[in-house]
Structure formats: C-alpha cells, structure tokens
Amino acid sequence: MAELQEVQITEEKPLLPGQIPEAAKEAELAARILLDQGQTHSVETPYGSVTFTVFGTPKPKRPAIFTYHDVGLNYKSCFQPLFQFGDMQEIIQNFVRVHVDAPGMEEGAPVFPLGYQYPSLDQLADMIPCILQYLNFSTIIGVGVGAGAYILSRYALTHPDTVEGLVLINIDPNAKGWMDWAAHKLTGLTSSIPEMILGHLFSQEELSGNSELIQKYRNIVTHAPNLENIELYWNSYNNRRDLNFERGGEITLKCPVMLVVGDQAPHEDAVVECNSKLDPTQTSFLKMADSGGQPQLTQPGKLTEAFKYFLQGMGYMASSCMTRLSRSRTASLTSAASIDGNRSRSRTLSQSSESGTIPSGPPGHTMEVSC
C-alpha cells in the first residue's frame, strides 16, 4: 500500500477581511435573481390547493402587499403592468408581495375534471389564512380587482385584525338580483363565455374600439388553455352572496379602504354604491378618467401615485416624494373642515386636466377623485 504523503497547500490569494468568495457572490446573486423572479408555492386548504408567488423578503413591522386577480386573468395578466411600472418600484422595495392565483388559474394549470366542485368566493376567502400561516405573515394590505376585490373584502370581514388596508378595484359587493340573473341568462344564449368575461372586464366602448390592449386580452381569454377552469371561477363570481355592507352598522370594513373604478367602466355604479355604504372616515374613492374597465392596466402611473398617497395615509413611506401628475391635467381641491382633532378630514378631490400633486394628509377621509 502506497505511503500517504502530507501535502501543504498555500493559498495564493488570501481573502482580505470582509472579502466575499466568488462562490458566495454567485450564490448571493442567484438568490437576488430568484427574489426578483418570485418564488411560487402551493398550499393545501380545506377547499383544495392554491398557488401563490412571493416577491421580496418580509420587512420588519410592515404588512405584505397581497393581491387577488379578477375572472379571466391570473396574477401576471392582472397585475404585472402595475407592479412593473417605474414609479411602483419605490413601493415594492419597501414591502414583500404575495400574488395569489385562484385555483386552476395559474400558468400551466391542468383542467379540472368534469363535475369538479369549484370553491365559492367565500371559500376562496377562507383559503387566505392557510397562505398567511404557511408564510408566517401576520398582516396584509390587500389589492384586489373584481372577483379578487370581493374575496379580499370577505376575508377582511372575517379577519379584520389581519388586514391593515384594502385597495378594491371594480368591486361589486352585491349578489345578483333576479333582473341581473335574467339578463345574464339571456346574454348566455347569444354570447360565449369569453365574450361575457370580456364584457365584465372592459367597457363596450373599449371592446368596440378594439385597441391593441383589447386585442391582447381578448386573445388571452379566448384562447386560454384552462378556459373550463375560468368558467368555473366565473360561475362562482356570479353566485356570490351579498356582502351586506351598511354604513354605521356592524358589517363594514374596519380598515382604510381605497375604492377605484374607471369612468364609464362596467362596474362604475356598483363601486359608487359600495362607497355609499362604507365608513366615510375610512374610505377613499378614486374614479379615473380615460382608464376604461381595468385602470391597473391602462393607467398604472395614476394608480401608483394614488397607492403611494394611500400608504402614506396609513403611516408608511412618509419620506416618499410624490411624482408630479402630467402637465395636461388640472387639479382642484375642495376641503371641508375637520370634524375633530385626530380624526380624518372629509375631502373631495377632483382632478381633470393639468399639473398638480395628490396632497398627503392624515388617514381616514373620504376622497372622490376623477383623474
């Protein structure tokens, strides 16, 4: 047996204090890239599996931004234009984000078997605690569109201590009435499921105009490989229960809320009615001109600025500089006197066409905005 020889290895380039080995640098870079791309997880719940994607790392004493998309979309097609917008980067650097895909809506999702019982919107809301428990997150700021706005509102009613704020785009808190059902059934006789969903997402003016954006989303919905799953989500949305909001009553959202809808959007009347039912000292109402049915897609800059203001009102990002609104807009502000010292001011803000900035101020005020 050959005799073992002792070999002494001399490090040619000793590390200086604080110097990171190349392998460690590469690992750190890979970790950052992974965070930028998001980490996708699935968790089992009493109502089936749900998939969600996490971006960033949790920040001490800060809630997670938690999104839920509308029917016919997934988190990417619903929220990417907003969260990839340049001015939004200042916000997302300060919060961890969780983007939920409703069951069967994630990319590459298999089609559910015939006869599968899709969860109701109430049950989809009941899946959220499983996600937060899995991630060990205690509080959220919810951002929801359409069906997603309803789901986050239902969750906030049952778990108010875990919701610090809500941004609700195109929310319809009402169950369908008999007239709505009759109209829905008649539409179903002459229109396909994709056409009905597109009519839910966009205004008739937008669909008739057939812009590049409309063509893109018509293609997404019409040629979706999981169209059967989308139809199940659509049916759950149309079978939603009334949230029974009542101003001054027991059933109401206890956190700050920003309601958002586009001018002439399909859900404009529903959002206006929702605003009338919520606590005016906690609710901001943003009506956006020239934004159509999906303001997070068509006006991400305006919505980002409003979101910054909303966060500042909650006590976050106090040092953030608000961006200037476009020079082609005018802003007029009418303020009423404050009701009491620390409570909110009732405020109506109307923005139509020239430069101005959305003013910062204390949380808890009613704000009606056309911008």
TrEMBL record:
Compartments in which it is found: Cell projection, Growth cone; Cytoplasm
GO biological process annotation, one example: nervous system development
Tagged with keyword Cytoplasm: yes
Domain of life: Eukaryota
InterPro entries, alphabetized: AB_hydrolase_fold, NDRG
Record keywords, A-Z: Cytoplasm, Developmental protein, Differentiation, Neurogenesis, Wnt signaling pathway
GO cellular component, one term: growth cone
Renumbered residue ranges of the record's region Disordered: 334-371
Functional summary from the UniProt entry: Contributes to the regulation of the Wnt signaling pathway. Down-regulates CTNNB1-mediated transcriptional activation of target genes. May be involved in neuron differentiation.
Similarity comment: family membership: Belongs to the NDRG family.
Protein name: Protein NDRG2
Protein source organism: Jaculus jaculus
Lineage of source species: Eukaryota, Metazoa, Chordata, Craniata, Vertebrata
Gene: Ndrg2
